[in-house]
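task queued by scheduler; priority normal; single chain, no ligands, no partner chains; default sampling; output format set to structure tokens
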Amino acid sequence: MLLLLLLLLLGPITTATDETVTQESFVDLQNYHTQNEKDAVDLSLVRFQKIYQKNKKTIQGYMKKNCKHNESSRNLMRAIAFLRHFLCHYDEQKIRDPEDRETLLSEVIGLMTSILQAVMNAKQLDRYRHKPYLRELFLGDRLRACIDESKLVDGDFVYSFPKVFIENRFIRGNWFTRNLACEKVTFSSSLEEKECYDTVIGFFVELYDNNLKTRPGKLK
């Protein structure tokens, strides 16, 4: 089974018609509001921190103003950098409005899930076997409970998220509000350069392999 998943992850990337989505399309706010998910979010952010650390030079290359990469690919790589910075620097007590804090965490959950979904879609992983398993590994049980998986797009899609995530280099003070979240940027899963997906796929394989060693027989 490990060989099958590795072949799927390393196989060809395909494209289809794009659908535009936001975190509101699949983050389950009812579950989200009934439990404290900050710790669960942090556990998932560690995955993106490791991706950033292993690919720091590559990711920073996409963030340079005069780079030759397309805007969609740049936004995806900048989003990964943001998730790393968010883990390291976010202090929820600095965001004064509780509703702003809830919106912020919902947007972060949506962004992590969309990046994960885009990679799994591109590699044509099975929606009933491989996707739920990797989603659980990547997001964890508690955070996965916030995701309405029936609404996740299995084809290509355009994901819209707050521009402030990638234009503000510093996460400090009351840096996020619901009004700021209204200004959006996007990445399109069908326009991403192969290198973008490779930065995440390598970690997929490592995460799956390590988990298989500790939990043999999980994926049947």
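post-processing summary
- Residues 1-16, 216-220 have pLDDT under 50 and may be disordered.
- The CA atoms of residues 25 and 153 lie 9 Å apart.
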